[in-house]
Design brief:
Protein name (chain B): Multisubunit sodium/proton antiporter, MrpG subunit
Number of strands of chain B: 0
Order of helices and strands of chain B: HHH
GO molecular function, one term (chain B): sodium:proton antiporter activity
Largest interface: A-B, 11 and 9 residues
Pfam family, one (chain B): PhaG_MnhG_YufB
Strand content of chain B: under 5%
Number of helices of chain A: 4
Structural class of chain A: mainly alpha
Keywords (chain B): Membrane, Transmembrane, Transmembrane helix
Strand content of chain A: under 5%
Organism (chain B): Fodinibius roseus
Largest sheet of chain A: none
Largest sheet of chain B: none
Oligomer: heterodimer
Number of helices of chain B: 3
Radius of gyration of chain B: 18 Å
């Protein structure tokens, strides 16, 4: 068995592509009202950009970018954003996830629906990204 | 008149792209060995996709969609050869021997 060395082409290419994939994931999350996309798709794109670095550059460098004990708290924070928004609308007198009833001052109902959907999509995207990275980390933990 | 020229060039580019994709697929099925299969797919698939997307850019003209297609073209031109390189390199580092003339085809080349 030869000694394995990291390929500079793969490393440089993934380092070049990863920020653009992450930017496109954020675009898919934040533009999810008007075009196809949303929290799930954008979250998988963010996870893809993180996993590209994780696969190509190994454990030590990728843990600097996004360390593995961050995944579960981020997933929990995303779920809390989702249910917090829904329950806030419920407590303010509407139904669950009734964005028009959110108690944000200075906004009327259409603007409230706009921002409410955006907050929900952010929570979903955060959860999907963290859970996918956590699945990858759990899979490779046995090999290291 | 302009749109006729656009449509003619679109059809030419897309047909050329489909030809290269077809050649790559036939190469994947027919060639005997992992390295030659990678060789067949990587270059011709990249070229076929680039030609098809170039034809779609010509079809769109100056538009926001053609800018997005140009970005897709750029990313395919970057990522497809890098992926093929990573595949072939992983096979080489796993000591997969290429198929030579004397190698037994049925037994494979696991030795």
């Amino acid at each position: 068995m030869k000694k394995r060395v990291a390929s500079p082409i793969v490393l440089l290419g993934s380092r070049l592509l990863s920020p653009y994939i992450m930017l496109f994931g954020l675009y898919v999350i934040f533009h999810g009202h008007y075009s196809p996309g949303g929290g799930f798709q954008g979250g998988t794109l963010l996870a893809a950009s993180l996993l590209l670095i994780r696969i190509s550059s190994g454990r030590r460098i990728s843990r600097i970018q996004f360390s593995d004990y961050l995944t579960t708290p981020l997933a929990v924070i995303g779920v809390l954003i989702y249910f917090g928004t829904g329950l806030t609308a419920l407590l303010a007198g509407g139904y669950f996830l009734d964005y028009g009833q959110l108690p944000i001052p200075g906004l009327d109902a259409p603007d409230l629906r706009y921002w409410g959907i955006l907050i929900i999509e952010l929570g979903i995207g955060l959860t999907v990204m963290a859970v996918l990275v956590s699945i990858f980390d759990d899979m490779i933990r046995g090999e290291d | 008149m302009m749109t006729d020229i656009q449509i003619i060039f679109t059809v030419l580019f897309v047909i050329a792209g489909i030809f290269f994709l077809l050649v790559g697929s036939i190469g994947t099925i027919r060639l005997p060995d992992f390295y030659s299969r990678t060789h067949a797919t990587s270059k011709s698939d990249t070229l076929g996709l680039l030609l098809i997307i170039a034809g779609l850019i010509i079809y769109e003209g100056f538009h926001v969609n053609s800018l997005k297609l140009l970005l897709i073209l750029l990313f395919i031109a970057l990522s497809n050869p890098i992926g093929s390189h990573a595949l072939a390199r992983a096979a080489y580092e796993a000591n997969l021997k290429p198929l030579f003339k004397g190698t037994d085809k049925e037994k494979g080349n696991q030795a």
